[in-house]
Amino acid sequence: MAKKVAVIGAGVSGLISLKCCLDEGLEPTCFERTEDIGGLWRFKETVEDGRASIYQSVITNTSKEMSCFSDFPMPEDFPNFLHNSKLLEYFRIFAKTFDLLKYIQFQTTVLSVKKCPDFASSGQWEVYIQSNGKEQQVVFDAIMVCSGHHIQPHIPLKSFPGIEKFKGQYFHSRQYKDPAGFEGKRILVIGIGNSASDIACELSKKAAQVFISTRQGTWVMSRISEDGYPWDMVFHTRFNSMLRNVLPRTIVKWMMAQQMNRWFNHENYGLEPQNKYLMKEPVLNDDLPSRLLYGAIKVKTRVKELTETAVIFEDGTMEENIDVIVFATGYTLSFPFLDDSLVKVENNMVSLYKFMFPPHLKKSTFACIGLIQPLGSIFPTAELQARWVTRVFKGLCSLPSEKTMMMDIIKRNEKRIDLFGESQSQLLQTNYIDYLDELALEIGAKPDFISLFLKDPKLAAKLYFGPCNSYQYRLVGPGQWEGARNAILTQKQRILKPLKTRSLKSSSTIPASFLIKILGLLAVVLALFFQL
Ligand code: FAD
Ligand code: NAP
Question: pTM above the 0.90 mark?
Answer without folding.
Answer: yes
